[in-house]
From TrEMBL, chains A, B, C, D, E, F:
This is Manganese catalase family protein. InterPro entries: Ferritin-like (IPR012347), Ferritin-like_SF (IPR009078), Mn_catalase (IPR007760), Mn_catalase_dom (IPR039377). Belongs to the manganese catalase family. It comes from Hufsiella ginkgonis. CDD domains: Mn_catalase (cd01051).
Length: 317, 317, 317, 317, 317, 317
């Protein structure tokens, strides 16, 4: 069950209205790397984690709820950056004066003109409040979130999400010189970094966590690097020497077309990998047993019940 | 700031897995009339309400947070209805047996087969958990929500939203015979009715609340009913007799083509409405003054600050 | 069958081109609260209404067709506001002069510059005509419409839709000082108010119409108001005293966490509601019988045929 | 102004309910090649055509309005194919019996089961009516339409649209054996062919109509065929011999990589094309003058007015 | 298998940064008529063509790959038009100076200000690179492509697509005066014309290719032209005289409402068409036999294998 | 410039048609974690990488082109899994027999019935070929890709993308028992693992790469873990002890509401962090200088030119 206190987690303040920055800030309200995306990603991931991993469930819910609280902060900042717009719009009968201002020299100072220029929806649809879109008006969409029911995958999705969110805040900070807004952005940006570290630590507690998921890689196809854009090619640790942590060397395919032809579409390969294939099959079977039992053992027999209402009694004592 | 306790608001339970119903229930998780849509609608409306209407802000946040809590209940129910799917998928190496089951007589009993048939994403993307889509896989989208920065409009949007959500729950209840699930649905359906009543009462406290917004209707065009589909026409209170609450009669345009031609596109109308037009202009000016002052007076001068951190201190005492 | 006369329902005129306002006006052409949304909403609702409610079918088609006619007016106005753009673009070979104008002092006066700035698609995709998008270029989408096959719900959706559409016109009117355009907007805005009254009157003729749909609310969960955001809480008619029209009092849950815990997720409730539950079950059965028979009785046995071609013969006599 | 008579353009009938086919038929109601897409495409194209080409405006409106009338036919057929669904859903209290039927042997005969299986939205959202989506539930979207303000382009878009729509009807006809439905589909499919012929004839009246738009092709880059997928290459009229209607031969680039390198990215080309370039520049200037004047001359000076209300007076005489 | 050389097909150059034009150019990178849309359309069409029509498969892949190469050119041009943006953003700590510039007189000269104004995503999401959206930020979407598994339809879709793409380039050329950029656009525009001619030639080699698909038109409904918008009607080759290539005359329905009534929804028609109906049925059967055998005969029995790896061996010799 | 050889990179084969699996496999053709998403993500990232990091540009293009080649393999497999569908559809006149089969006992064996059941678009829109959608018909959308112009972010996005893609292939492998298809999937799944390792190695070569982007975290907000869901809380390395690699301890906020109140929204914090703040500011300035110079120095002065056409000359020698 969710709960709400009206104070913001961070004391968001705004020195003066700035509709242009309000519009930019929509990226973190209803944008692809924004706070709602983060909140919904961790919230939906938490369902799958609960049964076998109540510790990760707790962490995911803690962070999801913090992201909802950040969503609230971003929305509040946008609303304050648009101060004056709603009042002007409510003055619905007095349109002529505004038009004179808008086309004249005072346009840049006029809040309605600024809002209209920054985002037409501020003056036609939201009446000076945040909309759940990005800075170009694209409605927030659940395609933005990644939730796949496997923690070795989900936590990696989260490391990437936090990285992107951090970068967007870094970019946003260049476009305001309001010290209050900057401080709020600094708080929000930093929390993405903190969450990154939490997810990194959590992923580390799951072993093995590579490859993501359950199955091993097929040893016949693991090592080749295909030089598909052969001009001005560069060799580096990603295609030369030892593969990270795998104890094997990269196999650089200089001329992929010839290689594919010679191997009849990679079906005629070195026999030495047969033994490896068998090892992988054994490991796959073992990991499948372990991972599936982990989930199955955690699920109750018979009627399923989500909550016991015991902990909360203790909590309230 | 949001906060969370792990117990669900309602004690959701599930007697046995049912992926087909899990998929239907996605309508209320990530669908157009579902709980996330409701939660985000009221949450975004609350921003605009806070300044001039702290009482409505409180109500909108109370209900928004309850809807988030319902979202959690729906998701938990879906997760329980999919019990067994995640465990089977983690048994990744053992595919041959499953295929035999899936194509044989036992297919209907097999949880993976049921899940695959109900929604391919249960077995490819979410690994047996809820996804933020509707029952046909369409990702949730912020176009579903209506938030327009005017309470006489927003509260009406909410009456409609609650009506639709209630109807969807009513329909869903026909497709399960699990008494636990039925009870959960009965709770959720009923809360939509309760919220309807709250919004209705709130709208009543704002006077006048019609027409929605600030401006009056133009008296020249208010009363005509255009009979645009003239065959088998029916006369009823919506086009005959007195208009509801307006003290005026409907003006039934039997033959719109002829009428439009005769009035040169409605520009040559009865002079008697000139006086009415002036009255409306006066009323518009007055309402604009009142409504815009209401907002402007509520907004702080200078630096804006969202929270005072005073109430929460008292709350915690 | 639809039919068309080339004269507009309202005599739309434009004093001078204004691409910026043309772009804003797209909200009511291809936007979420615009004329196409209204037309398609009532048009699709009409299908379900036809059988048991031919009177409402007639009304929905009358209004749907008027909304299509308004769509045409809005599009014609946009086209006129963009006068000059198509001609300039057709002068395809003469690009250099335009670039000089665009970057120089005359830019504000140049119609191509105005169109480019207002909406890049005016000069790249539509060649100076309306596109079926909103003012930020989002293509119109059928997610905007609500059509649920139950008039007690659909008519409420329509009250909300008309309210929103009215507000958007009210806002748009602030951004033009062309008296012809203003008059067109005043007409269109007012018709939304008129339609509102039609739908309100129609809903009133269906009794009972609350709760929407068929089923009653569950008496165990109807009355609670959960104080989910407990700081700075306000009591008002939406959570205090008598519920509107229900003859029952609100039940204010001051501390929802404690309440949920004490009632084990609302499953341990006051016994006094058992009798109420039975009454509701009886009422549900009765309403189900009435409402389903109403539909079933109206449907023809055997082959279904939509039209009889009798009325039109009479109409043409 | 639109107008409506309740009789369908074609006498659509249905022998018996068939939810599966109802779902397929959604392709032509709310799908990418369906009737709404056609109607809105021609309707929006008509705006741009009106000024310089009132004859094409008339044709586009005639066909657009016929497509709206076809949309109505498709929707009516879907509604009749779902007969029984709405009535069952209204019987909201009686859920247990349905569940027994649905899981038992009678499931295939039961209309609710059929509807649920065909499309979950038939039983949760539309209550047995058409929704403005395709057969997989994707909401209709204005990205489906092509309207670009140039008749040499728009009419070609229409030839393609009609071709696709015809093919979809052809495919649909394989999935019903109801003779009434087949006849309706035969009518609808054939009208796409008829419209194709209308657009073809109209395009022919505009001369020159190639290249589409105003500008000529650049003679330096017109003739090359790049053999980008060089294996198993085939020579045919599209890369060998004379180009259709241009009096020039294809220039087959056997080895594009070598050619690009040798020409430094096509910048070092045969000098003989200089003269051609100048001819093209002259032709471009001339066509620009003609085409832009055609539009500009057709636009009124001063106030723009869409309708004169003269023709309709005559029409009604 | 795809392959890549780092040199562009055309030597794209840019004289100086121009974020406004970079944004416009996104239309051809991630827009509805852009290069990705073309590439993916032909690439997906090629799958269906391969079996019965290896010659068309070769052509479609040749052109698809050229369109991918054009996509690369467009993206490279956008990246060059945004030179300076990434470097400024990386200077993340130095925000104050930029704000002074942005609000002052130098704003127009400042690359960050230009980029922000042109497209907020250039400075928040892509850091000065191309995004796969159109010029208004709408993400590229596969709804843009048409691929229907029938060459008589697909090739017509391609003629339309090339026409639209050509027009967009024509429009874009008006908005830059950079001679290098103009030359690139001239190349890209011209290739659309060249592809048009290739598709035209290919369609001609398939006989008969009308009507598109397999089935003939129903002779009862082929010839009528419905005068659905009867005011100011115009007669032309599209509704008067002989239909193109069909040897039949248009049948002009002056008053569609009366005609539909008189024919009871077109079901009571002239008997003379019975014979025609039979001819059509025979032709349909014959064409079905031919067309289906053409595909079936081309498909291998037993295991399907896409590639033989023989041709490439020869290619490399 | 792209190039294509008709042989697939992997020798994809299919033992027998299986439309159900063809539909599932669409996830990796047009789905959110599929091959097009990967290809377009790396392709668009490459633009930003080219200037300062030609080595990463080479790697991104190599992998992007391999992903395009995988897209081709997936599409070819889908086409082969649908063998028979196109031929049946072309047999357009012979509909009655199919209907008999479809409703009878042979339905499960009939390829058209299987295709219709698996995905209605296989029989209405694509005629038995792949469509650029996921398994539920959602068109591919560029929102799926992440490309942010900063390699420390982009490479992390890629690690997550490869993890998700690997998991989807793992899941898909459970739903086919065709050994040829399994082998293709094993190849494709394994390549995701190989790419993961390439991106990991590449990220390692950029130092420092944490935090992602340029700016350091704000020391005032880096360490707190907010216990936002306080029931059944768990302590682990993500909120207890030392933060990974940072040499600092987590600061566990047991009661966030009280903490926020006591710190007035985190604005009244421990003074000890002032010194840290200054250090961070210095580091930010230094990193900004380094990172921005890295980009600026790599950009050419004056005219920008993408390709030199020198390397390809050498390549062809």
């Amino acid at each position: 069950m969710f709960y709400h206190v009206k104070d913001l987690q961070f004391n968001a303040r705004v020195s003066r209205p700035d509709p242009r920055f309000a519009n930019l800030l929509l990226e973190q309200f209803g944008g692809e790397n924004g706070e709602l995306a983060a909140a919904m990603q961790y919230f939906t991931q938490a369902y799958g984690a609960k049964m076998p991993h109540p510790d990760k469930y707790d962490m995911l819910m803690d962070i999801a709820v913090e992201e909802f609280s950040h969503l609230e902060i971003v929305g509040a900042t946008i609303q304050m950056l648009l101060k004056g717009v709603n009042g002007e719009l409510k003055n619905a009968a007095d349109e002529s004066e505004i038009m004179q201002v808008m086309d004249g020299a005072e346009a840049r100072e006029n809040i309605i003109h600024q809002a209209l220029t920054a985002n037409p929806h501020f003056v036609t649809l939201s009446s000076g409040g945040p909309r759940l879109t990005n800075s170009q008006g694209i409605p927030w969409c659940a395609s933005y979130i990644h939730s796949n029911g496997d923690l070795t995958v989900d936590l990696r999705s989260n490391l990437a999400s936090e990285s992107r969110a951090k970068l967007v805040y870094e970019h946003l900070m260049k476009f305001t010189d309001d010290p209050y807004v900057k401080e709020t952005l600094s708080f929000l940006m930093t929390r993405e970094v903190a969450h990154y570290k939490m997810f990194e630590a959590a992923l580390e507690t799951i072993q093995p966590n590579f490859p993501p998921g359950v199955l091993q890689a097929d040893p016949r196809f693991t090592r080749q690097y295909f030089n598909m854009s052969p001009q001005a090619s560069v060799r580096g640790p990603w295609n030369k020497g030892e593969m990270p942590d795998l104890g094997k060397d990269w196999d650089y395919v200089q001329d992929p077309i010839a290689y594919v032809q010679a191997t009849e579409g990679l079906t005629v390969l070195d026999d030495a990998k047969e033994a490896e294939l068998e090892e992988v099959a054994e490991l796959d079977a073992k990991m499948s047993e372990i991972k599936s039992q982990e989930v199955i053992a955690a699920e109750p027999k018979g009627t399923a019940q989500w909550s016991t209402y015991q902990d909360s009694k203790q909590l309230n004592k």
